[in-house]
Design goal:
Order of helices and strands: HHHEEEEEEHEHEEHEHEH
Strand content: 15-25%
CATH class: Alpha Beta
Helix content: 25-40%
Distance between the termini: 55 Å
CATH architecture: 3-Layer(aba) Sandwich
Bound molecules: zinc ion
Largest sheet: 9 strands, mixed
């Protein structure tokens, strides 16, 4: 009974924003979608859900009345589709900010569903609600393009396709902001940016983060993730991009024991009672504040070492 009361209390204090994220992530990571495997029939349920969300907030469709940007992948019979909705800039401009979160996961492996909850149902949920925040504001100074990318696992196919077929010119993308993984460990104080080398906009990001009470603390192993995200193609092409993670310190700086969620890319990547949603909004609002800054300051940042982001794809 005490336990039920505690759960109820947590739910009651949640904002509508977090409630929405919980709802999206719970559906996307459910067995209804069977792990959102590329090439599987369940991809269509996934894209339908994202389209419904984009439509509910009246994001402009990628083409005509469709949010789908479809393309083929070698060895996959069906086309896959990036889901793209955008908010047009207040005045005519071809510059844009791009927001990405991959919706695919591994599907069913050896009879087990790899639900891809942290990787990356939660990221897509956050992307949807980030878009909704922008739709509730005055039209931005640049076009804002929200992309739930397809087939990131196994080749970053969706983001590569977009970078070759962008809605607004790639050379006029101010920055590509990627959500892949998200804080479900509770309130946190420290954050870091991936990549941390080969770019010259860490100072700008840190000024914003510091103003919100965040502390930059980048683990040494981060360099190993330089080519691990949908940001890879953007960075290699010289387009600023990043992914933002949080660390292990609670508010006030004390080290907190994060739950052991088990590995991603496994049947263990599910939403469980261990998930603590109470840090979700702060993480999202940090992304939002950084985006707001670059909407207003679209020039003067660059990728300084594109070679760090070279990755050979088949
Ligand atoms: Zn991922």
């Amino acid at each position: 009974m005490l336990c039920l009361l505690a759960v109820g209390a947590q739910a009651q204090t949640r904002s509508k924003l977090v409630d929405n994220i919980v709802e999206h992530a719970t559906y996307l990571a459910s067995d209804d979608l069977m792990g959102r495997g590329t090439g599987s029939e369940y991809i269509h349920l996934t894209t339908d859900y994202i389209a419904d969300q984009f439509q509910s907030m009246e994001l402009r469709p990628y083409s005509g009345d469709s949010y789908l940007q479809s393309f083929s992948i070698p060895g996959v019979s069906d086309n896959e589709s990036n889901m793209i909705g955008f908010i047009p800039a207040r005045r005519a401009t071809s510059s844009s900010l791009v927001f990405t979160a991959h919706y695919d996961a591994y599907g069913i492996v050896d009879g087990e569903v790899y639900n891809g909850a942290r990787d990356n149902a939660i990221g897509v949920a956050a992307l949807i609600e980030l878009a909704r925040l922008f739709t509730q504001e005055v039209a931005p100074e640049q076009n804002l393009v929200f992309i739930a990318t397809a087939a990131e696992e196994g080749g970053q196919y969706g983001s590569r396709h977009y970078s070759q077929n962008p809605l607004f010119p790639l050379e006029e993308v101010t920055i590509a902001i990627n959500i892949d993984g998200f804080n479900v460990s509770g309130p946190r104080e420290d954050y870091f940016v991936i990549p941390r080398e080969g770019i010259d906009y860490l100072d700008e990001i840190d000024a914003i983060a510091t103003s919100l009470g965040w502390v930059y603390d980048s683990p040494d192993w981060i360099g190993s993730l330089n080519t691990s995200f949908d940001t890879t193609t953007f960075l290699f092409n010289g387009t600023p991009a990043f992914t933002l993670w949080v660390g292990d310190r609670g508010k006030g700086g004390e080290e907190v024991q994060s739950p052991d969620f088990g590995p991603i890319h496994s049947a263990d990547d599910e939403i469980t009672d261990q998930w603590d949603w109470s840090g979700v909004e702060d993480h999202l609002m940090l992304y939002k504040a950084i985006a707001d800054y670059f909407i207003e300051h679209p020039t003067g940042i660059s990728v300084t070492d594109t070679d760090l982001f070279f990755r050979a794809f088949e």
